[in-house]
Amino acid sequence: MSQLQNAMIILVKTFNDYARKEGKKDMLNKGEVKTLLEKELLLQEAKNPGEVDKFIKNLDRDSDSEVDFSEFMVLVARLACMIHDFSKK
């Protein structure tokens, strides 16, 4: 498999691993988002409940207070763009 195919498989697996911990198996609830942000992205802001609420609000396009896979991918794409921009400097 190519690097890109492997990356996509890892993204899907990572989302599913966190989404399947509680509640709906295809959605991330607030606790799952918090854990994912802390463990996968090493974001210290995730320790602050208000910051987690902001992340969810910014990602939650359908306002259901959960993050589905396509909403999660928006976060991944934004972060990838930031990393790309930073790497050009």
UniProtKB/TrEMBL annotation:
For this record, an example GO cellular component is: extracellular exosome
The Gene Ontology biological process terms listed for this entry are:
endothelial cell migration
Residues forming the EF-hand domain are 47-82
What keywords are assigned to this protein? Calcium, Metal-binding, Repeat
Gene Ontology MF term list: calcium ion binding; calcium-dependent protein binding; transition metal ion binding
Q: Which InterPro entries match?
A: EF-hand-dom_pair, EF_hand_dom, S-100_dom, S100/CaBP7/8-like_CS, S100_Ca-bd_sub
The record's listing under CDD domains reads:
S-100
Name the UniProt record assigns to this protein: Protein S100-P-like
Q: What is the gene called?
A: LOC114450941
